Structures are given as C-alpha cells and as structure tokens.
Amino acid sequence: MPPDNQSAEAEHKFHNYTTNKIPWYVRLIWVGFWVFVVVYTVRYLFPAMQIEIVTPP
Predict the structure, then answer these.
(1) Span 6-23, pLDDT tens digits
(2) How many domains does one find in the chain?
(3) Is 30 within a domain?
(4) Which of 54, 20, 1, 33 is nearest to 46 (CA)?
C-alpha cells in the first residue's frame, strides 16, 4: 500500500490529542506528600545536619 501524500491538516484524522484529567484525590495525595517532605526536612534533616557538621563523629 503506497503512502498518502496528504498533509496532516488535509487528512484530519489521528491528530486529535486529548489530555487525561487528574482526579482531585490524586492531587490531594501529592499535596500531602509534599507537605510531609517539607515538614520532615525542617523537623529532622536540618537539625541532624547541624549536629553532624558541628560535631563530626
């Protein structure tokens, strides 16, 4: 079968792209994850780094 020499605009098929919407609960999970990351970093990682830098083992 020989290829069509039509342009994509003239063909008008197989060129419609749609997106999938992310559900609200998935967004909520991501927001919760990033809140956890920030709280963990501020609460545990920064103080531990200060102790390790000031008084190495």
Answers:
(1) 676 666 666 666 778 899
(2) 1
(3) yes
(4) 54
Fill in the amino acid letter for 5.
N
CA within 13 Å, CB half, 45: 7
Q: Which amino acid is at 13?
A: K
**Which domain covers residue 32, as residue numbers?**
11-54
Q: Which structure tokens are listed for 47? A: 């103080």
Compute CA distances 13 → 2, 10, 25, 36, 47, whole Å.
Answer: 18, 9, 34, 45, 58
pLDDT, the chain, mean: 81
Return the structure tokens found at 42. Answer: 């501020």
In terms of pTM, does the model score above 0.70? no
**Rounded (10°) CA dihedral 23, 28, 29, 30:** 90
